[in-house]
């Protein structure tokens, strides 16, 4: 099986890039995959912080949002992926910062040549917000940015529930105008209380919040389990070979 490169994109803050990266890393490692996590915003590195010290995940910080560092950043990314291949790491997840288009989208042909040279399979997940700006930038990414790297989809976050149908219509109109065909998937919603707990405990992966040792109520643990299950089903639609991990609570006690 080819090494997989999963890129969580969306050239705007607050559209769910970090959450999607977190969930992807979690599902892959729970599916018994070794993962290279590249966090593209070194000053924050919020996703990388969750996986520091976890054996199945190698974390790296690379600035992927500064235009002047484009060549240096892409060389570092290619070098880390090449190293991951030699270490038998099956998947790379890249969490891009807001404004990444000024850097990583600048020379997609070079990136595609790297992907081809390393014989890896690329997926670009474009996270779309509910604003006209987000729709416009998402269409640009799909048309001329990393959307041209490999398999590309739009992810519409359900926390924009009131605007999600309007966003879908806007994307369809923009895609028709630009003559591009990008599948759309609605990413599941995690309730506000559960998100707040994630932000409060920022150095633990999501599986921690499903374990009895975390001290969460049964209902809260069920919510995390349902969220990850729904997300894994979306990933399975994007990649039919995606392994859905066993996310049942007390699975060792269930026949």
Number of helices: 8
- Helix-strand makeup class: alpha/beta
Strand content: 15-25%
User: N-to-C SSE series?
Assistant: EHEHEHEHEHEHEHH
Outline the biggest β-sheet.
7 strands, parallel
Summarize the amount of helix as a percent range: 40-55%
List low-pLDDT spans.
none
Termini separation: 31 Å
Number of strands: 7
| Strand order in the sheet with the most strands | 3-2-4-1-5-6-7
- Based on CA inertia axes, which overall geometry fits? globular
Radius of gyration: 18 Å
What is the mean pLDDT? Answer: 89
Secondary-structure blueprint:
Layout: E1 4-9, H1 17-30, E2 35-39, H2 46-50, E3 57-61, H3 70-86, E4 91-95, H4 108-118, E5 121-128, H5 132-144, E6 151-157, H6 164-178, E7 184-187, H7 192-200, H8 218-238
Parallel strand pairs: 1-4, 1-5, 2-3, 2-4, 5-6, 6-7
Helix pairs in contact: 5-6
Précis, in short:
With 255 residues, the chain is α/β, with parallel strands linked by helices. The protein has helices at 17-30, 46-50, 70-86, 108-118, 132-144, 164-178, 192-200, 218-238; strands spanning 4-9, 35-39, 57-61, 91-95, 121-128, 151-157, 184-187. It has a seven-stranded parallel beta sheet, sandwiched between helices.
Describe the structure.
- This protein is α/β, with parallel strands linked by helices and 255 residues long.
- The chain contains eight helices and seven strands.
- It has a seven-stranded parallel β-sheet with strand order 3-2-4-1-5-6-7, with helices on both faces.
- Strand 2, helix 2 and strand 3 (57-61) form a beta-alpha-beta unit.
- Helix 5 packs parallel to helix 6 (164-178).
- The longest helix is centred in the last third of the chain and has 21 residues, at 218-238.
